[in-house]
């Protein structure tokens, strides 16, 4: 099997995470609870069977092209199969947090 010398496509989605944090502020002026919900999202993609050169040069470039506003990507390269000399490239995208605000009634 020949090793890839270019990065093609979006890679393989290997994991995705989403978490929500909820903050409640009890209002003294209005009789509502202000509820702020912040959602954080992260996904990891991999490319396998790469040459060392293409894996390392992609990490060094650390391209942020094509990402949505506020998102950042980090890259790492690691040995994948020692006996054939292939490398794996991992790209982790951390998206900008999204915060929404709602009003809730006080519990009865």
Describe the structure in your own words.
By secondary structure, the protein is mostly beta strands. It has one domain. It has one helix and five strands. Strands 1, 2, 3, 4 and 5 form a five-stranded antiparallel β-sheet that branches. The longest helix is centred in the middle third of the chain and has 10 residues. The chain starts with 11 loop residues before the first strand and ends with a strand. The mean pLDDT is 92.
Strand content: over 45%
What is the CA-based Rg, rounded? 21 Å
Number of strands: 5
End-to-end separation in angstroms reads: 67 Å
Average of pLDDT: 92
Largest sheet: 5 strands, antiparallel
Instruction: List the helices and strands in order.
Output: EEHEEE
Q: Into which percent range does the helicity of residues fall?
A: under 10%
